[in-house]
Amino acid sequence: MTTQDAPIGVFDSGLGGLSVLDAMRALLPRESVLYIADSGYAPYGEKTDAFIQQRSKAIADWLVERGAKMLVVACNTATTHAIRHLRSTFSMPIVGVEPGIKPATLATSTGIVGVLATAATLRSERFKMLLAEHEARCRFVCQAGHGLVEEIERGHLQGALVEDLLVRYLTPMANAGADTVILGSTHFPLLAPTIRRLFGDRFTLIETGSAIARRVQALLPEHGLAARGLSPGRIEYFSTARTHDQRQALVAIAKQLPMSDLRVTVSGVEIGHALADL
After folding, report:
1. Which active-site residues does the annotation give?
2. Per UniProt, where does substrate bind (predicted)?
């Protein structure tokens, strides 16, 4: 296999990165991808900073060993806490997730923006610095989406519990006057249809999958890595999920995505790391 024909390695704490993969597939259909859902350790948002960094490094090592030519950290939490370490470790291009704060400030009319993210993202210094850069223009109403990632990991994109959590988290944003909501986890764009059903056109939803895909598209030829073939690239799915039901949740959600191949199969993998799961 030539370097150009090698796959792009994409990973997330679980199923959220499928929203990024879908955007990449739409823009870069010739590229092959190795996608890892680290569902056995999700959600990262409830883990320590040291755990997130070590876990991200272990997965990146696994992808590089299997020939990945580029890494996409399709996880807000892992990007926030680990991408600097990954870039200092690997020489290949590494693309992470930006929180979408700047496009949200440009989209809002009221000057009030809601942020639905994981607890780890909200507490990170990087995220706090990004907020501080734009606080003169906007007021941000931040909320940790406790429980939502876990429901998505079970394959639940709607239903009573998901809807109850969304109403609980987004109603205060609406009451505060927010007209724009940043979906600050790659898991949360998967809930966009449910959010729109519950809140109508109350919010402009900001997600970053398309921006990530465009960044990958720009970097591939810059580094001489763009696929040369004319046929569609191959997508391989892997999961660290410990149960068959968890792996089937990945299959179920992947099949719902616009650019998905309906013949989705998932291989279970074990990826060790240095720290205990604390």
Report:
1. 75
2. 12-13, 44-45, 76-77, 186-187
